[in-house]
Amino acid sequence: MKPPGKLLRGTALLLYFFLYAPIIVVVIFSFNAARYGVGWTGFTTKWYAALADNPLALTAAKNTLVLAATSTLIATALGTMLGYGLKRFYFPGQKFFQSVLHIPVFIPDIVMAIALLMFYELAHHWLGWFELGLTTMILAHVTFQIPFVAIIIQARLAGLDPALEEAARDLGANEWQTFRRITLPLIFPGILAGAMLAFTLSLDDFVVSFFTSGPGSQTLPILIYSSVKRGLTPDINALATLMILASLAATLALTLLQRKKAVHK
After folding, report:
1. Is residue 16 part of a domain?
2. Would residue 14 count as lying in a domain?
3. What does DSSP assign to residue 43?
4. Residue 32 gets which letter from DSSP?
5. Contacts of 230 (CB under 8 A, 6+ apart)
6. How far apart are CA 265 and CA 262, in angstroms?
7. Which domain holds residue 260?
8. Shortest CA distance to 214 belongs to which of 145, 143, 140?
9. What's the CA gap between 171 and 88, in Å, rounded?
10. pLDDT digits (tens, 9 = 90+) for 105-126
């Protein structure tokens, strides 16, 4: 019996409408000339120009990019090493560490944020470390990014044929040469995917950033939250639209890079 094609297509259209309609509304109303409310009074781009003259928005954008880029670089490197080590080496307690790796993924953001804040407060009280600011935010983001990267790397390694690495060692390559010439190129798409996920998680994070931020470390999600409490205005829609475009640009860049690599192969 053939599946009801019209029903499936209709369901798919409804699902896509449900997923993307709010995003489309935000983008459209970022060009609304009305200062307040949801009534459409005309098309304008002045809210984007206003953002360029808003020092709070510029500082928040800078903090967001620095936070996302720095935490992604650190988490990708550490997560790759962790995922590779857990998958390729055997040691006492390996299964236990494999299991607890998933715990930060399932912990609610609010619990993670409170735990990190408590840790920073205790460390600052007893040792004088970790005064709340951009540094603590970077460390906090690295903390919740590492498990995602490590899990993706492990999934990538699970799909590789171990015979390729064995053949390299049989031909005289040491462990480092085998990793650099065989393993690393094969898991590179997984590394890119993990980095992309880590960057996206950092870019739109609010809860952990809010709890671990300090003076002068406001990010775009925090700025949007504080602005929305005073009322929903088109400049907030413009900020949200720019964040959407940043996420789309990063996703497209990753897709094109993976396609280019596949063509070269």
Report:
1. no
2. no
3. B
4. B
5. none
6. 5
7. 54-264
8. 140
9. 20
10. 888 889 999 999 999 989 888 8
